[in-house]
Amino acid sequence: MKLCPLIVLAVACVMAPAASANSYTWDFATTPNASLGSTTHTYTVGGINITATGSTNLYYKVGGGEETGLGLACCDTDHEINPRQSIVLNLSALFSKNVTSLTLMLGSIQSGEFGTVCDAFAKCMTFNSSSDFKPVSILALYSDMKAHNNGQLTVTGGPGDVLINQLQVTTSAVPEPGSMLLMGSGLLAMAGIARRKLRV
After folding, report:
1. In a shared domain, residues 13 and 23
2. SS3 of residue 81 by DSSP
């Protein structure tokens, strides 16, 4: 009889899913120096859709290094996100995932320039030249977006202009309630055995 709780615990440990991590990367420039001819484009990685919407037609710029990313076809030959222009990324497809890490990489930020990244509720982050072409965590911003159930993330050029290069997400599995209940039952049984042994 004393072995029964141990068996329950062993079964629970086997059946509970491992907290495996999955990583997804969206690269926003895949065709060299070309307009998409549209203000909206959907990027799909691992079955997750991220939609980009520009204030004018979207443009893939591939200029090497930090000059690579998603910009706008209007209004100069630079094809980047200029001041008062923006690209909105819709991240709402991530809300069903257990996101543990979320980074955004902007490029073409020269000294004295910056880009602004905001949710729909005026919570913003600033990317300056020290974060040029580097992954920067936007997890706190994403948490605010998820709390308000609005996935819109707006990237705007400040003084100078910017490009959106990459978005990277790490998710972990959430154990199913049934597996958690089974594991909990096994742990309670173990606690009962320990208490009984202490009384003896």
Report:
1. no
2. strand
The 10s digit of each residue's pLDDT in 58-111 is 999 998 778 999 999 988 889 999 999 999 999 999 999 999 999 999 999 999
3 state SS of 108: coil
Count CB-CB contacts under 10 A for residue 173: 13
Domain that holds residue 71: 19-174
Asked, as a colleague might, if the bond just before 75 is cis with ω within 30 of 0, I would say yes
Q: Which two tokens mark 134?
A: 């580097």
Q: Which residues partner with 72 through β-bridges?
A: 58
Instruction: Mark whether 100 and 184 lie in a shared domain.
Output: no
Burial class (CB in 10 A: 0-12, 13-18, 19+), 88: buried
Q: Which residue has the tokens 């199913």?
A: 176
Residues 136 and 200 in one domain: no
Same domain, 181 and 85: no
For residue 199, give both structure tokens: 């009384």
Q: Tokens 């706008």 map to which residue? A: 72
Q: Are residues 77 and 39 in the same domain?
A: yes
**Residues 138 and 166 placed together within one structural domain of the fold:** yes
Percent of the chain surpassing pLDDT 70: 77
